[in-house]
Structures are given as C-alpha cells and as structure tokens.
Write a structure and sequence with these properties.
8-stranded mixed sheet; globular; 9 helices; 19% strand; 8 strands
C-alpha cells in the first residue's frame, strides 16, 4: 500500500521545515528535534489525576508520571509505559499527550517511566532501569488506584524494546508477574545486516531510516557484540516460553515492521498468545501523533485487548522460576 494521506501530509510538513536526518546531528540536537514532535500532537486531553513521582532504579531514582482516568466499574490495570527515541532521546513529555489519550480510551492507570538514556548510559543500563521500574510500580499499584494483579508492560519504538526486555528479565529473574505486554513499533533485532525486507523497502524516505537505526544502535551498545544479547535484541532469545501474552502493533512504512511481526510468530511458536496488528500506510511514529487515524485505531485496539484480557476472572499464571 502507499502512504496514508495523513502520513504523507506529515512528511510534507517535515520537509517544509527542513528537518535534518537524526543520524546527521549530535545527540543534543537529536533530542531537540525529537521533542519537536510535540508541536504536532494537538491539544492535551484532561484526565482525572496526574501524579509525579519517582521509583528506585539501579543507579538512582527514576522519574515517573502516572495518569489516572475517570474511574470505571471494576479493578483497573496498571500499564507501565516506556517512551521511544532511539534510546538517546524522548522523555515523559514526548508521550504525555498520547498517554493521556491512552488512559482515557483504555481505563487503565498508565505510569510513564523516564529511564537513563544513551550514550550517557549504554546497554544494559536502560533495560535494568525498565525491569526495576516495573517491579517498583507494581508494588505501588494500589496507591495509584490500580490492581497489581493486572500488570501490563508497554512501550513504543526503543521503549518497546525495553518493554520486551523487561518481560524476558521478569521471566528469568522470577518476577514481577506481568500479565500482558504491548509493543508498538518495537526495536527487537539488530539493524546491522538485518535480514528483513522492511529494512530494504523502507530504508529511506519514511522518517525512520536504516541509517538512523544503525546510528541509534551504535550509540546504545557498549560494543557491537552486545547486539546478540537477548535483552538487547529480544527476537534473538532462544526461548520465549512463559512470556506474557502480547499485542504487537506495527506500521507498514517502517524498517522495524518485519522484525516486530516475526517476534509475534516466534511467541506463537513457543506457545505464547500473540496478536499482531499492522497499520497500513502508517509511519513509525504514528502512535506519537494522537490525532492520526492510525493512532486512534491503536488506542481502540489496546483498549479492546485490555477488556478482553482482564474482562473475566482468570486463575493466576504460574510464576516464572
């Protein structure tokens, strides 16, 4: 399919603004450019309450912003979310408007985590932050009006990578027990020598590029060999058995599309329920633009998935050992 008209119009606006490629500027400029996406996100939806807090990480406190939507009947899931930005950029402000919309659409309490970023902190630092934050927030779920027995881990782009890694770490380390993972355009495999067609088909011209991904990986990893570690590249894990059920949302016009969809197939092959939804004609950053049709559809799909997953009482899933 061709680009959705909304996606094409967005690329046209970026071209008019002469936005430079993220791999051709320094990290401070890349962070400024990434935060510039906030100007295209539209107005912020009101939510019932927002709490600014911190949780302990392996190297200090991690800032967290918690969104509580208007209360609905029944217990509310706690959805721990990790922002994207190539591991080098992004923060809670970048995803503030998308997560307000997600909380309202889903009824879940959404906790947005700021992890340490590369290149100041390279792998495995951000993954350790993610795992620590999930455990700390689960322990405080009741404080936020959520049910610790309905724990969801989610993330977008590099944040989807951290969400998937946190699930692997929870399985390997015996907790916390995560009930569902939601991965939005996640990074799950190395960019170097990628075997996936989407890396060739959408190598350039669609905002997120092959060259940019190579650059982000280079800034994230302490050495190239670390790309093979399953916490860096969850697709390369030899065993996905026992991981939480997954919802994986992909964008058609994204180099990362095929690796994310392959991850869904690997999960299914290892007996993990996994649903994969491709958003035709969409760009990698679609979730960050709440007004786009693709973003609205994604929020609706996440809300439907949460209702289906938690709508009826279920026996507890055995804890990983």
């Amino acid at each position: 399919m061709s680009l959705h008209p909304e996606a094409a119009a967005f690329l046209d606006r970026l071209e008019e603004q002469r936005m430079p490629p993220l791999d051709q500027v320094g990290v401070p400029t890349a962070r400024e450019l990434m935060n510039g996406l906030r100007q295209a996100q539209g107005p912020a939806e009101p939510v019932e309450a927002i709490t600014e807090t911190c949780v302990p990480g392996p190297a200090g406190l991690l800032p967290v912003r918690v969104y509580r939507p208007a209360r609905r009947p029944g217990p509310r899931p706690l959805l721990v979310f990790f922002h994207g930005g190539g591991w080098i950029a992004g923060d809670v402000e970048l995803v503030d408007k998308p997560l307000r919309s997600l909380a309202n659409a889903s009824g879940a309490v959404v906790a947005s985590v700021e992890y340490r970023r590369a290149p100041e902190t390279r792998f495995p630092g951000p993954t350790e932050d993610a795992h620590a934050a999930v455990g700390a927030l689960a322990a405080r779920a009741e404080e936020f009006g959520a049910d610790a027995g309905r724990l969801v881990v989610a993330g977008e782009s590099a944040g989807g990578n951290l969400a998937a890694a946190a699930c692997l770490m929870a399985k390997d380390r015996g907790g916390p027990q995560i009930d569902l993972q939601i991965l939005i355009c996640p990074v799950l495999a190395p960019a170097e020598n990628s075997p996936f067609d989407s890396y060739r088909q959408y190598a350039s011209g669609y905002l997120n590029t092959r060259t940019a991904m190579l650059h982000f990986w280079d800034l994230y990893l302490p050495s190239p060999g670390k790309a093979a570690h399953p916490y860096a590249s969850p697709l390369l894990a030899t065993d996905h058995k026992g991981l939480p059920p997954a919802l994986i949302l992909t964008a058609e016009c994204d180099p990362l599309r095929d690796e994310a969809e392959e991850y869904g197939r690997r999960l299914q092959a290892d007996g993990v329920p996994a649903a994969v939804r491709r958003h035709d004609g969409a760009l990698h950053v679609f979730f960050l633009l709440p007004g786009l049709t693709a973003a609205r559809h994604a929020r609706d799909h996440i809300a439907h998935t949460l209702r289906g997953h938690f709508g009826t009482p279920r026996p507890p899933r055995p804890r990983a050992r």
